């Protein structure tokens, strides 16, 4: 019945209202929110009306235009220090061509194997501390959990490393944790000693200068009195 209205603005507003009430988008995991997609449909209909109507009002012109997004680009300028090469020297990554052509194989591109298992690190909620015991009874009761890998799972003769040098997957000795604090403590003590020595030297220099000035003043006063007599 709204199409029988005499004013075009009334027809447009009514059509937008009906569309808003009748559209009920489905919930999609990767499709944006329902409210956004619903409002997008209403906006596109309004944009169509503006394009067909060709309004003479300047503030409505931009609503009918089709936005064109130019090619994005970026530029970064940095200083090249050739004397430090190969450090900082531009080089093409060995896998760049494979990744650019789509030939590189990533973990998610590989097909799953039958009875394939996945591992995840379990982190402690304590920042600094020693692990006395690990209770896995509750975790092993969870459906799908097949086992737990701890320090005891390392076979005899195996290496307890995790690629980076001097980095252990499991802490072999608690004494290693004390090296950074001891280093910082020793560094602070050395700095304090240096500051104290500098202060003492400065005080001695200032005292010597003051004594010298007092002696000069005293000698000048003494000789001036002798000249008077």
From TrEMBL:
It comes from the Eukaryota. Residues 101-204 form the Aldehyde oxidase/xanthine dehydrogenase a/b hammerhead domain. Residues 1-17 form the signal peptide. One of its GO terms (molecular function) is iron ion binding. Keywords: Membrane, Molybdenum, Oxidoreductase, Signal, Transmembrane, Transmembrane helix. This is Xanthine dehydrogenase/oxidase. The keyword Nucleotide-binding does not apply. The chain crosses the membrane at residues 182-214. Pfam families: Ald_Xan_dh_C.
